Amino acid sequence: MPRNSAFWHWAERVLHTQAFRIILVFVFFYAVSATALVAFTYWNAQRAVANQIDETIDAEVGGLRETYQRLGVIGLSDVITARVAQHGSGLYYLQSPNGSVLAGNLSELPDSVKLTGKFFEFDYQRSQQSQTVTRTARGEAFTVPGGFILLVARDISDQQLSRKFFTTTIPWSVGLMLLFGVAGGVFMSRNFLRRLDLINRTSSEIVAGNFSRRVPITEAHDEMDALAENLNIMLERNERLMKGMREVVDSVAHDLRTPLNRLRNRLEEIQRRLDPEDSRQDDIEHAIAETDRLISTFNALLLIAQADSGLTRDAMSTMDLSAIVADVGDLYGVVAEEKDIVLEVAPSGTLAIEGNRSLVSQALVNLIDNAIKYTPPGGHVWVGLTETPLGIDLTVADNGPGIPQDDRPRVLERFVRLEKSRNSPGTGLGLSLVAAVARMHNATLTLGDNAPGLKIMLSFPRSLARKPQLPAPAVERVL
Fold first, then answer.
1. What is the pLDDT of residue 148?
2. At the N or C end, where does the chain have fewer CB atoms within 10 A?
3. Strands (E), 26-177
4. Measured between alpha carbons, how far is 358 from 328 in angstroms, rounded to an integer?
5. What letter would DSSP give residue 471?
6. Rg of the chain over CA atoms, in angstroms?
7. 475 vs 235, 383, 472, CA distance in Å?
């Protein structure tokens, strides 16, 4: 199955869920603790059985020594023969000084025998169901006065078999616990992902501008439903706030922009009526300039508010980004030429995105206008589009004074201007508008060093990128 299949994508999502990780950690510690508990219990049981066998052998050895002291070798041999006849689990071997077997159910003395009176383990042959099998015993051997050798032991093959069974079963048990734990984690994570996908889809639709969407609530009435209810309450309040903001923006746009335009027209009318040599001409000219600056500031703030609030998402459509770059390049070509600046628009094919054409155009205008404004005469401004695996990058670079790295995050705020290095007229809202347009389109705004100068990149994600079928020639202009 290919790695990029739907199954692998689903499996990767499941493995990265918090629910799966919690269950996996729980199962791991449960398996380790359960194994440790069973192993400790088994070790104690085996030790108790071993101690019991050793105590039994010690008791028998003590009894046989006492028999030898009272009855001698003949009496000891008779007692061993009687015990062998009972077909118990005891193993005995009595050897004379010349090496002959006097009594016992072992045919020979083991090679690993230790005549020290200490316990040792050895293998011996035993007839079982018409077959000779090798079994294991544990015992002690010592020399009886007179040169006789006595071995007393107990068969421990059953204990060894249980030990082998335990060491073989434990890994399989741990493996099965982990396997069932992973299966349970996958099952629970799948249900968790299903509920989470509902929230994510709802959130995506809200981010796209559909503020009426709500998170579905199931009949389970669990903690996820409690979260969904709280989210829906929050979304309800946000929708009311957005409606109120829309009304405020509409009111401000209608009640302030119109009077400002009327004021400007009135000032121009007064200027036309005055004599060209009138000393009041300069005052009116300054008043018109201040009015234009106020209108420009108002329009910029209005665009930023609209972009941040998502009010312009309804106007999003498929647009050719390369055509916008070409149009804005034509628009500012004359301005750059007047300042003795080379404005270069790099060639690109047809690259389209889903967005608001007016806001994207205004953002590009602000970027090129800033680049031309702060680039010294004889400088160079470069504008280009690049298609990447992640989307489309719109880059505007200049070789002006640039912006210090520490100040780059600050220049994206409203009304922030770096007077030390950039003292040209302006409102300090140009890059703020660009940042708002980037947020609206889920794009990334990057301010970098052009060595020298500033390089600003606006990266639109692949989800916004489109490839229209209409052919478009490459655009290359050096102005």
1. 85
2. N
3. 90-95, 101-104, 120-128, 131-144, 148-155
4. 12
5. -
6. 46
7. 45, 11, 9
Co-location of 246 and 266 in the same domain: no
Q: Are 266 and 331 in the same domain? A: no
Tell me, yes or no, whether 294 and 202 share the same domain.
no
Residues 344 and 448 in one domain: yes
Q: How many domains does the chain have?
A: 4
In a shared domain, residues 41 and 158: yes
CATH number at residue 339: 3.30.565.10
Strands of 465-466's sheet, edge to edge? 317-320, 352-355, 465-466
Instruction: Compute the C-alpha angle 73/145/123, nearest 5°.
Output: 80
What is the DSSP annotation of 335-389? HHHHTT-EEEE------EEEE-HHHHHHHHHHHHHHHHHHSPTT-EEEEEEEEET
Tell me 463's DSSP state.
G
CB of 427 closer than 8 Å to CB of 300: yes
Q: Are residues 364 and 238 both part of a single domain?
A: no
Residues 249 and 349 in one domain: no
What are the tens digits of pLDDT across the range 400-440? 888 888 778 887 776 666 654 445 555 667 788 888 888 88
Q: How far apart are the first and last CA of the chain?
A: 54
Long-range pairs for 85-91: beta carbons < 8 A, 24 or more residues apart: 89/154, 89/155, 90/60, 90/152, 90/153, 90/154, 91/124, 91/137, 91/139, 91/151, 91/152, 91/153, 91/154, 91/155
- Between vectors from CA 383 to CA 380 and to CA 386, what angle results, nearest 5°? 140
Query: Domain range for residue 448?
Result: 314-478
CA-wise closest residue to 372 among 397, 394, 348: 397
Give the global pTM: 0.49
| Sign of the alpha-carbon dihedral angle for 403, 406, 407, 410 | positive
Q: Are strands 342-345 and 380-388 parallel, antiparallel or unpaired?
A: parallel
Are 153 and 300 found together in one domain? no
